[in-house]
Design a protein that fits this description.
Blueprint: H1 8-17, E1 26-30, E2 36-40, E3 47-51, E4 55-60, E5 63-64, E6 72-73, E7 89-94, H2 98-101, E8 103-111, E9 118-128, E10 131-147, E11 162-164, E12 171-174, E13 198-201, E14 233-235, E15 243-246, E16 253-257, E17 263-269, E18 284-285, E19 288-289, H3 290-294, E20 322-325, E21 332-337, E22 349-353, E23 358-363, E24 370-376, E25 382-387, E26 393-397, E27 402-406, H4 415-448, H5 453-460, H6 464-480, H7 487-492, H8 496-509, H9 512-518, H10 525-558, H11 565-572, H12 579-584, H13 590-599, H14 607-610, H15 619-628, H16 632-637
Antiparallel strand pairs: 1-27, 2-3, 3-4, 4-5, 4-6, 7-8, 8-9, 9-10, 11-12, 12-13, 13-14, 15-16, 16-17, 17-20, 18-19, 21-22, 22-23, 23-24, 25-26, 26-27
The structure holds calcium ion.
Length: 653
């Protein structure tokens, strides 16, 4: 039975599989930290590295502060709890006004009393006035303490993360259930203890009699409870929520709760929550009914609702966003929603698994959360993911002493999104094929004399390609919602201009206007032959345009270099590596050089000669040339709002 987060056996196993060369995703900033547990930025770009034995050293400009003169040294107070203990100096949180009041908060464990192996202490300190690189240990103020249950087995599950809420500026801590295995005292469901709870306290408040160094926020869910429920409690039912964080943009709270024998889980509490959630432990382990495995709910309060199977009623409990089995990982390390410089990765939850040495992304482009592995075995003992003031993320390696920056600009997009983008592009490829086939078909029908090619196209609707593109865009909006700043994401967000820009670009790329212009009435056999040749050239031109479009979009999205329609247009350019020009330029491409001069003398085929100025940018000239070519029928079908329609007055009524 796995009881210890940092158990010795797990450590040895990790040492053997770790030490792989870092990928371009990971930039190792140091490997000199001593059992680092956490890293945090006070808001000025310095990284404060929390070391388990009780020191904090600053990592700045690539240099880790001298171990003999750390920022903070409380190692004389700290008791890690021995080989199977999960104590130590566990994390740091900076007061939102740290820049002016120099106050910060830490959590550590010290030796317990009365048979309790460890006591968890949350305390504040001040940095030295005039020396921002050193703290004054004499300024310690203990806010709150919590003893482990009595018994040597209760050395694990202390939680480990202090965070300030980004909106309420209140201090949060998440306690583990107290330890041992399967929460034998049912602490996580018992409102009279802080064990197995997330608490929310006001470090600027005070209750002189009960707790002089913190206050109870009036809107805490149990602030006025009269049944013995502790007023500090914000949420309950947690096993060992070792790491958690707030999304700096949305304020949502993301919790990684370490599981027992079956599941690891990630919980998400929306910013709109008023607290009071029950995350289920020990009744539920992730999405699995743990009470069934336990054969009951030993020592739980009578008010607790149990389960007998996974399909038992779930009322009153909040279930994880995702849970994963122990074939995937066995010690979840809650991370952060990424909000750094690489916009294409914004909004994705990045977290780790300590036991398996993995870094994950939780991706849900279609609303179905899905795990993908970003790094496997590159960090030995990933014990925390920290965030700097720019929203960039860092992984802490407990066993290899590393702090590494995560470089999302060097990653392709998650597979789920890439798949979605590829499908979208296939839709466009299909559209191009359809356009080519339609033109060839209309030309053939025109040659039989049963209809004119222009009437055929008009019947098919000359704007069909744009409409199809719009439909594809609408269909794709959902899956593209995860690609911020790009055309279809704009559509998903109701940005019609972004959608139109993307749709128009696609129409330009597939050459709809050119294709329409070359289709004219076949007046004789020679014209028909020429039209067939032209249609063939148009088809090959479209194939090149389609290929270039796909190349730019797929590789650009995958490498996160395409984040807007303009990026995509720039990638294509007027001459995508010369291929579009060679295939499609009516003056120099095959239309001009091979087909038109030699075989085709009829009007309407030699584009360059017959249709000077046939350009959408000059509607009058276009309409004139369309009229000349007998295209007034087509012209009228462009609606008046379209630039093409405004010049149709030159056509006979
Ligand atoms: Ca749970």
């Amino acid at each position: 039975m796995r009881q210890a987060l940092l158990c010795l056996a797990l450590c040895l196993g990790l040492a053997a599989r770790g030490a792989r060369a870092a990928s371009s995703f990971l930039e190792q900033l140091t490997n000199q930290a001593n059992n680092p547990m956490y890293v945090a930025d006070p808001g000025d770009g310095r990284l404060f590295v929390v070391e388990r034995a009780g020191t904090i050293r600053i990592l700045s400009g690539g240099m880790l502060q001298d171990a003999n003169s750390p920022f903070l040294d409380v190692s004389s107070k700290v008791d890690e709890g021995g080989g199977s203990g999960e104590g130590g100096l566990l994390s740091i949180a900076f007061d939102p006004s740290f820049g002016t009041n120099r106050r910060f908060f830490v959590v550590y464990t010290r030796t317990g009393t009365g048979g309790s192996p460890l006591e968890t202490v949350i305390a504040s300190y001040l940095a030295l006035d005039g020396d921002p690189n050193h703290a004054d240990t004499s300024t310690e103020k203990i806010l709150i303490t919590q003893l482990s249950p009595v018994g040597a087995e209760f050395v694990n599950h202390k939680g480990g993360n202090l965070q300030f809420g980004p909106n309420d500026h209140l201090l949060y801590y998440a306690y583990g259930d107290g330890g041992s295995g399967n929460d034998p005292l049912c602490n996580a469901q018992d409102g009279t203890t802080l064990l197995g709870k997330m608490i929310r306290i006001d470090p600027n408040g005070s209750d002189p009699n009960a707790h002089p160094n913190y206050g109870i926020p009036a809107d805490n869910p149990f602030a006025s409870a009269t049944d013995g429920t502790r007023p500090e409690i914000w949420a309950r039912g947690l096993r060992n929520p070792f790491r958690y964080s707030f999304d700096r943009t949305t304020g949502d709270l993301w919790i990684g709760d370490v599981g027992q024998n079956t599941k690891e889980e990630v919980d998400r509490q929306p910013a709109s929550s008023h607290g009071g959630e029950n995350y289920g432990w020990k009744i539920w382990e992730g999405d699995t009914c743990n009470a069934a495995a336990l054969g009951g709910m030993t020592n739980c309060p009578v008010s607790v609702t149990s389960c007998t199977s996974d399909s038992s009623p779930r009322d009153g409990y909040t279930f994880p966003v995702i849970d994963y089995p122990h074939s995937v990982g066995n010690v979840v390390i809650g991370g952060h929603v990424y909000r750094g410089a690489t916009a294409a990765w914004h909004g994705r939850y990045i977290f780790a698994d300590f036991g398996f040495g993995k870094i994950f992304v939780l991706d849900d482009p279609n609303g179905t959360p899905k795990l993908e592995v970003l790094s496997d075995g590159d960090v030995s003992g990933p014990v925390a993911i920290g965030e700097d003031h720019d929203g960039e993320l860092y992984v802490v390696g407990l066993y290899d002493g590393t702090i590494s920056k995560l470089h999302f600009e060097n990653l392709s997009l998650p597979k789920a999104q890439t798949k979605c983008v590829v499908k979208l592009n296939q839709d466009f490829a299909g559209l191009a094929d359809f356009e080519s086939a339609r033109i060839r078909s209309c030309l053939a029908k025109g040659a039989t004399g049963k209809t004119t090619p222009s009437a055929c196209l008009a019947q098919a609707n000359p704007k069909l390609s744009k409409l199809q593109a719009k439909h594809a865009a609408d269909d794709a909006a959902l899956c593209m919602a995860a690609a911020p700043g790009f055309g279809y994401a704009g559509a998903a967000a109701g940005d019609q201009a972004a959608l139109d820009a993307e749709t128009n670009l696609a129409a330009d790329v597939f050459g709809g206007d050119l294709d329409t212009a070359v289709v004219t009435k076949a007046t004789d056999r020679n014209t028909f032959v020429c039209q067939q040749s032209v249609a063939k050239s148009v088809a090959s031109c479209q194939a090149v345009r389609r290929a270039e479009f796909l190349r730019c979009k797929v590789t650009g999205l995958a490498k996160a270099t395409i984040t807007s329609v303009q990026d995509l247009a720039d990638c294509l350019g007027p001459d995508a590596k010369g291929r579009i020009a060679r295939a499609c330029d009516p003056a120099t491409g095959p239309l001009a050089a091979k087909v038109i001069p030699k075989a085709c003398t009829s009007r309407g085929v030699d584009l360059a000669a017959a249709f000077p100025g046939c350009d959408e940018s000059d509607p009058g000239a276009l309409a004139q040339c369309l009229a000349t070519a007998g295209e007034c029928e087509t012209c009228r079908l462009f609606d008046a709002a379209d630039a093409l329609g405004t010049g149709c007055s030159v056509c006979p009524p």
